[in-house]
Structures are given as C-alpha cells and as structure tokens.
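Researcher: We plan to redesign the surface later, but first we want a full-length starting point. Tokens attached.
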C-alpha cells in the first residue's frame, strides 16, 4: 500500500502560509515606496547636485552612497562586493519568507518580516544599479551627526522592532498560561 500523494496545497505550504499575503503586500509597498523615493531624490529633486539641504534644525537631506554595510562597515566599492551584498540580501529575504510561511504567528510578525524583506530588497537593488546604497536622511543634534539612512533602513529597523515586540508578546502570553 502506498502513501497518498501530498496535495498541491501541502506541497506549496513551505512557501506560502496563512500570513504570507500580508507579508508580501508589506514587502511590495515598502519596496515601491523606497525605490520611488530614491528615484525622486536622485532623478527629480537632484539631491546629488544640491549637496546638504537643511530641512529642520535636526534633519538634513544629503546624498551618500554607502558601499559598505551598516554604518559603512567593511566599505568596498568593488562590483563583486556590491553583487555579493545584493545576493546576501536576496538570500536573507528568501529565508525570512520561508520562516514566515512556516512559523507565521500573526499579523505583526508577517508585517514585520515584510518590512525587513522590502527594505533588504530595496537596498539590494541600489547595490546593483548604482554600486551602493543611496542614503538621504541625516539626523543631528548638538554637533553630533548620526548615520545617513533611507526609507529601506527605517523599514528594516521597524521590522526588527516589530519582531522583538512580537516575541516578547508571545512569551508573555505563554507565561500567563498555566501548565
């Protein structure tokens, strides 16, 4: 006697879970907003030619091409390095996607993973198209300047915060349940 063949739904479940639609929608919206903003800043507004533009006493707009990773660590402008980082972003995004499909616990996790995926892919596209990540927002106060960042970076940080909050929220719910 042979085991029944798995259904198409079961076979595809490794790539699609209950919250995958929300994760995908969040990733696509994040990616589109990030890339549209970068296109506008570079192509329409011309921030590269304008230099630093003061917006608020603590916020400037400026174009910085980051050829490293966070905070310009491991800064290298070689094409192989940029393609390698873009490939890593794609691989990490695929791993996060499968993790969400398998272990998706709710809307917060799905939206958070979608933010991270959309941001990672947005920065990966920059690495392929311009040889580094286009950053624009510079926060500063009292003579201290923090790193320059973009919408994709904000999405990634928000996604990580969402995942941390979700894990704490779940662990508190688990702790409240009697054995």
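Model: Full-length starting sequence:
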């Amino acid at each position: 006697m042979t085991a029944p063949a798995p259904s198409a739904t079961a076979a595809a479940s490794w790539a699609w879970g209950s919250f995958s639609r929300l994760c995908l929608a969040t990733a696509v919206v994040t990616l589109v907003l990030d890339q549209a903003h970068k296109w506008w800043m570079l192509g329409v507004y011309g921030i590269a030619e304008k230099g630093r533009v003061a917006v608020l006493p603590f916020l400037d707009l400026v174009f910085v091409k980051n050829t490293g990773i966070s905070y310009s660590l491991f800064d290298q402008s070689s094409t192989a390095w940029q393609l390698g980082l873009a490939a890593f972003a794609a691989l990490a995004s695929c791993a996060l996607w499968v993790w969400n499909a398998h272990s998706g616990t709710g809307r917060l996790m799905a939206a958070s993973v979608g933010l991270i995926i959309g941001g990672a892919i947005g920065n990966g596209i920059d690495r392929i198209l311009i040889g580094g990540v286009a950053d624009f927002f510079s926060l500063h106060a009292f003579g201290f300047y923090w790193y320059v960042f973009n919408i994709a970076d904000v999405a990634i940080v928000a996604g990580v915060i969402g995942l941390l909050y979700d894990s704490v929220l779940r662990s508190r719910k688990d702790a409240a349940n009697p054995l």
